[in-house]
Amino acid sequence: MNTYSELDVEGYERVVRCDNDVVGFTAWAAIHDTTLGPALGGCRLWNYTDEQEAFTDVLRLSRGMTYKNALAGLALGGGKSVIRGDPQTIDRRALFENFGRFVDHLGGIYITAEDVNVTLADMEVVAGQTAYVATVGASGNPSPFTAFGVYCALQAAAAQVFGSEDLTGLKVAIQGVGETGGRLAELLVGAGCKIAVADINEDNINRLRHKIEFERIEAEGIIDADCDVFSPCALGGILNAETIPRLRCRIVAGSANNQLLHEQDGEELLRRNILYIPDFAANAGGVINISCEIGQAYDPQKAREKTAAIGNCIRRIIDISTRDKLPTNRVAIALAEEVVAASKGGNSPKTSSTTR
Fold first, then answer.
1. Is the CATH code 3.40.50.720 the one for domain 143-284+311-336?
2. Could you confirm whether 171 is annotated as catalytic?
């Protein structure tokens, strides 16, 4: 049986904890901002070291969803959920039945979907308990659209750094080749890129080996890969004071959420002349695809066209960053906050310089 606790967190509209001692999990849902619409964000299942790690993750992910949905021009707010449990041992059906009840308890302020270690089959179980779940039905697995969005973002980045959107001959080092990273690897090989990959999950490596050729790099060495593009497609916090000095690339662009451990890490990337494509701008393809099924008949072509517009968003971020000599992550945050402020009928003084 679920038990719920409301948590008061400054800057967030609602944060709720769910405990279930029978199944053996604790989950958190963080609704950061619903100015633009109900909060949409996936559910992540991870065997977090402790509760604080999980709690910190859900807060960061939730805020990132507000920025992601705002930059993508969606009528959706930002929210996220995480479950602390062991994906290898937990009773998945019981887990996601009770998680579905948790989502339903929130009364529609939050719409859930897939994320790390959560599948479409899991979401189908959730849908048996609540109507507030996306991807079950028309739009399906959002990963192909997330990968395509990152691909479009990378084209925009390549035009800035190398003078052309043609990716032929570029070497891309991909960290994590699961649902999204693997699909991105296939797109990049199709575009003429050379690929190096690392993943702690051997099944992901073996599955990809049947589809494309690539260089295998051990997980701990991918940061040091000599490449044109480093593409983080696993978990967050990978770009930090320890790892950034080890990068040997000109561009960082990937699908992982919260790639920067701290916002100021974007300044160090700028100082090192490495073009960082903000994750929440690049990886919006999945939520764009999901948005195309909410309140309307799903059209995959429309979803693809809207996802391709990520390239325009990235070009705008790069232009402002270059003009004002600001880190791209701070520019992207400012643009997203302007969208939310405008919807509230106000203006954000700290971001006004981005639109002059």
1. yes
2. no
pLDDT of residue 136: 67
Distance CA 43, CA 46 (A): 10
pLDDT 10s digits, 149-204: 999 999 999 999 999 999 999 999 999 999 999 999 999 999 999 999 999 999 99
Residues of the chain with CATH 3.40.50.10860: 3-65+77-127
Of 136, 4, 143, 17, nearest in space to 84 by CA? 17
Q: What is the pLDDT of residue 138?
A: 66
**Domain 3-65+77-127, CATH class in plain words:** alpha beta
Options 68, 80, 302, 350, the catalytic residue: 80
**DSSP string of 299-351, one letter each residue:** -HHHHHHHHHTHHHHHHHHHHHHHHHT--HHHHHHHHHHHHHHHHHT---GGG
What's the pTM value of the predicted model, to 2 decimals?
Answer: 0.89
Contacts of residue 245, Cβ cutoff 8 Å, sequence gap at least 6: 272
